[in-house]
Amino acid sequence: MKENFPLHWLSFIPSLIFLCSIISCSSSNGIDDYFTFNLQASHSVTADNSLFAHQPVILPIAISIDSSDLATNGTTLDLVKSIKLNSLKLISGDASYPFSKIDTLTFSVQADSFGSQILATYSGMNDNVIYTQADYAQYLKGRNATFMISMSTLNPPKVPLPLTVNITNVLTARPKQ
Questions:
Q1: Which domains occur in the chain, in start order?
Q2: pTM (2 d.p.)
Q3: Cα–Cα distance for residue pair 71/167, rounded to 1 Å
Q4: CA 77, 78, 80, 86 torsion: positive or negative?
Q5: Three-state SS for 89?
Q6: What is the CA radius of gyration of the chain?
Q7: What is the DSSP string of 151-171?
């Protein structure tokens, strides 16, 4: 007859679990201290109507993260882990040429050291913005990033087209110590 597993060994299980939990905690950094917040920004750009003769029209936009906005949220640019585009809205400054006349649009960021990254696309046919959820923190930290709008229209504007670009970024960062 085979002998059963000795039950007195079960009394050591709570002690082993306790010991393992102490060992695993001793090398841990504790709870992750990253936090997430939104930053909204508005930028203006004007597309000269003569640019629409050769489509797509490419417009550079000067976008940066203001250090005072970061300070208000208790962090700095070097403590930012990720930046993702959460909202993109383009508003035409010409009532006779609403944004709905834009056929397609791509919003991207590029830098010599990182190449380019598409952040969002727009389809006028579907009136839909699709966000890539790409992290572009490295572009803004490099401070030589250029944001670009590339757009095509079916009916080009007859006069220069002022646009307001409203964006919302979601940032994940560590707090400033």
A1: 35-173 (2.60.120)
A2: 0.75
A3: 19
A4: positive
A5: strand
A6: 26
A7: EEESS--SS-EEEEEEEEEEE
User: Do you know the residue count of the chain?
Assistant: 177
Single-letter residue type at 101: K
Q: Give the phi and the psi of residue 50 in degrees, each rounded to 5.
A: -70, -20
Quick one: residue 43, left, alpha or beta (phi over 0 = left, psi -120 to 50 = alpha)? beta
Among 125, 123, 152, residue whose Cα is nearest residue 53: 152
Decide the pairing of beta strands 35-47 and 102-111: unpaired
Averaged pLDDT in 10-residue chunks for the chain of 177 residues: 58 65 53 87 90 88 86 93 93 86 90 85 86 92 84 88 92 92
- Burial of residue 102 (CB within 10 Å: 0-12, 13-18, 19+) is buried
